C-alpha cells in the first residue's frame, strides 16, 4: 500500500524496524519490537521472518532479535565506493604503531557514532572492546564531538535539543549547554578530547577527516588505555590531526 506522501507502508515499517534494532545495544524480544513500532505482533513477526531469511536480522537462543552482520557488509560496500577505509588504513596503522594506542575511524549515525575501521597496536597487552560496526553515544566520545560539531547550525541545534545526554561516567557531559560549550572549545584547537567520559579508563582524541569540499565526512581518533598527562595529550593530538589531514589529502586526491 502506498500512502498519500508516496511511501510504501511495508518498506517504511522495515526501515523503522531496522533503525530500532540498530539503535539498541541489546537484542529485543518480539513483543518489545511490536510495542516500540506500534504495530500488531503478527505484523512484526512477519517482518522479522522476512529479514531473517535475508540475513539482515538474526535471532538468538533466547528468541531475541538483533541486526545481522549482512547489514554492515552492505554499509561497508557503500563506504568502499569512496575508498575511505582503504585510504585511511595506512595512516591509521602508522598512528597506532607510533603511539601504542588504538586508532578508530567513525561516521555519525543519528545520535551515535558508527565505527567503520579500527587498528590496534599489536604489541600492547591491552585491548579495547570496540569493533567495526560498534555504535556509541556521540556525546560521550571524542569522535562524536568532532562529527556533531560539523553539523550545519540548524541541524546542530536540533541535534542538541533531541539528544539524550546519558551520564556514563562521572566525567560525561550530561546536558546540551555544556556540550555546546565543549564544541566551541574544540573549534579553537582543531581536535576533540574524551576525558574518561565514555569509560573511566579510556582517553580519546579525535580530529576531522574532510572531503574535497572541506566538509567533515568522518572522524579519526586514538583511544588510549594508559594514563595520559597534559604534555603527552598535546603530542598525541598533533599526531591525530596530522593523520586525519593525511587521509583528507588522500581522499581529495582520489576524487572522493
UniProtKB/TrEMBL annotation:
It comes from Pseudonocardia kunmingensis. GO terms for biological process: glycerol metabolic process; negative regulation of DNA-templated transcription. It comes from the Bacteria. It holds the Pfam family IclR_C. GO terms for molecular function: DNA binding; DNA-binding transcription factor activity. PANTHER family: HELIX-TURN-HELIX TRANSCRIPTIONAL REGULATOR, ICLR FAMILY (PTHR30136), HTH-TYPE TRANSCRIPTIONAL REGULATOR RV1719 (PTHR30136:SF35). InterPro entries: GAF-like_dom_sf (IPR029016), HTH_MetabolicPath_Reg (IPR050707), Tscrpt_reg_IclR_C (IPR014757), Tscrpt_reg_IclR_N (IPR005471), WH-like_DNA-bd_sf (IPR036388), WH_DNA-bd_sf (IPR036390). May be an activator protein for the gylABX operon. Keywords: DNA-binding, Glycerol metabolism, Transcription, Transcription regulation. This is Glycerol operon regulatory protein. Residues 8-69 form the HTH iclR-type domain. PROSITE patterns: HTH_ICLR (PS51077), ICLR_ED (PS51078). SUPFAM superfamilies: GAF domain-like, Winged helix' DNA-binding domain.
Amino acid at each position: 500500500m502506498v500512502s498519500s506522501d508516496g511511501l510504501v507502508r511495508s518498506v517504511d515499517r522495515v526501515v523503522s524496524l531496522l533503525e530500532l534494532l540498530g539503535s539498541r545495544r541489546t537484542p529485543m524480544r518480539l513483543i518489545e519490537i511490536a510495542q516500540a513500532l506500534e504495530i500488531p505482533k503478527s505484523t512484526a513477526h512477519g517482518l522479522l521472518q522476512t529479514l531473517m531469511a535475508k540475513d539482515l536480522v538474526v535471532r538468538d537462543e533466547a528468541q531475541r532479535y538483533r541486526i545481522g552482520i549482512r547489514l554492515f557488509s552492505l554499509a561497508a560496500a557503500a563506504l568502499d565506493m569512496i575508498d575511505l577505509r582503504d585510504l585511511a588504513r595506512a595512516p591509521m596503522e602508522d598512528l597506532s604503531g607510533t603511539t601504542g594506542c588504538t586508532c578508530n575511524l567513525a561516521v555519525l549515525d543519528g545520535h551515535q557514532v558508527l565505527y567503520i575501521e579500527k587498528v590496534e597496536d599489536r604489541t600492547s597487552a591491552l585491548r579495547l572492546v570496540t569493533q567495526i560496526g560498534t555504535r556509541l553515544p556521540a556525546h560521550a566520545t571524542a569522535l562524536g564531538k568532532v562529527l556533531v560539531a560539523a553539523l550545519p547550525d540548524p541541524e546542530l541545534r536540533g541535534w542538541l535539543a533531541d539528544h539524550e545526554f546519558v551520564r556514563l561516567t562521572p566525567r560525561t557531559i550530561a546536558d546540551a549547554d555544556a556540550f555546546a560549550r565543549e564544541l566551541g572549545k574544540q573549534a579553537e584547537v582543531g581536535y576533540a578530547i574524551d576525558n574518561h567520559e565514555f569509560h573511566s579508563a579510556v582517553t580519546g582524541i579525535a580530529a576531522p577527516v574532510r572531503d574535497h569540499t572541506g566538509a567533515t565526512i568522518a572522524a579519526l581518533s586514538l583511544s588510549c588505555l594508559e594514563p595520559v598527562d597534559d604534555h603527552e595529550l598535546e603530542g598525541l593530538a598533533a599526531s591525530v590531526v596530522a593523520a586525519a589531514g593525511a587521509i583528507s589529502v588522500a581522499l581529495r586526491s582520489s576524487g572522493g
